[in-house]
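User: Predict the structure for this protein chain, please.
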Amino acid sequence: MEQEIKSDPRAVKAFKDRWENSLTISRVPPKTLESFKKLAKDEFVDDYGMTLKWIMDLVFGVMPTGNEEIYARLDMLEAKLNEIKQEAEKPKPKIIKMVGGTIINKK
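Assistant: Here is the predicted structure, written as C-alpha cells:
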C-alpha cells in the first residue's frame, strides 16, 4: 500500500496538500480547548486556522487588543472635551435685543 502511494504522483500530491499545512496540538487543557472551539465556532465558522491566526495577531500586536482600542477612544474623547472647553472659554459678545426687535451689539 505504501509503495502504491509513493509511485502514484496524484496520491503524493493529495497527501502533501492535505498534510503540508496542517497542525496537531496535543496536551491542551480541556477548558482552553473548549474556549478555543467556541471562539472558532462563534467568530470563524469553525475555521481553526483563522482562529489561530487571529489569536497570533493579538499576541504579536498586529491587531489592537481591547485595552488599546479603549485607550485610543479615550484619547479621542479627551481631545473633543478640550475642544469644547476652549469653545466655552471664548468670550461671548453681549447682545442686547430691544423690544422692537432691534439688536444692539455691545462688545
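The chain has a mean pLDDT of 82.
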